[in-house]
UniProtKB/TrEMBL annotation:
<protein>
    <recommendedName>
        <fullName>Roadblock/LAMTOR2 domain-containing protein</fullName>
    </recommendedName>
</protein>
<dbReference type="InterPro" id="IPR053141">
    <property type="entry name" value="Mycobact_SerProt_Inhib_Rv3364c"/>
</dbReference>
<dbReference type="Pfam" id="PF03259">
    <property type="entry name" value="Robl_LC7"/>
</dbReference>
<feature type="domain" description="Roadblock/LAMTOR2">
    <location>
        <begin position="9"/>
        <end position="100"/>
    </location>
</feature>
<dbReference type="InterPro" id="IPR004942">
    <property type="entry name" value="Roadblock/LAMTOR2_dom"/>
</dbReference>
Length: 135
């Protein structure tokens, strides 16, 4: 697992450095565990990953209200005073989160996040844990 995180670091750094105004990039599991980060300390990344787990759960609940959809969260964007937060599904039970300052090009962030997920999405898949495991 450590080697995979190290290999992912340059990809996250590339996203952060090629889109001006990105502050933090985090990869997390569906249950809110930080898998990798760039641009932030581990404690902040852990707090954000935990918050992301709640957001993706809420988004999935809302998604089930669409009769012709599959109910799965694909992208959540939150605009707050000071910037934007993006959360994107990035593989089975894995998510990519980005925090960016107000001046960020919102379309470019979404595009680069989709590109990153398409390139490495299968490597971001996380296994089912504990009581969620299927016998």
């Amino acid at each position: 697992m450590i080697q995979q995180r190290t290999n992912m670091d340059w990809l996250l750094r590339d996203l952060a450095e090629t889109v001006p105004c990105i502050r933090h990039v985090i990869v997390l599991s569906a249950d809110g565990l930080r898998l990798a980060q760039h641009g932030t300390d581990p404690d902040t990344a852990d707090r954000l990953a935990a918050a992301c787990a709640g957001l993706q759960s809420l988004a999935n609940a809302v998604g089930h209200e669409f009769p012709n959809g599959d109910g799965r969260m694909r992208l959540v964007v939150i605009e707050v005073g000071g910037g934007f937060f993006y959360l994107m599904a990035a593989g089975s039970r894995a998510y990519l989160a980005v925090l960016a300052d107000e001046g960020v090009d919102a379309g470019l962030v979404g595009q680069r996040m989709r590109d990153l997920v398409a390139r490495i999405g299968e490597h971001l898949t996380t296994p089912v844990r504990g009581s969620e495991q299927i016998a």
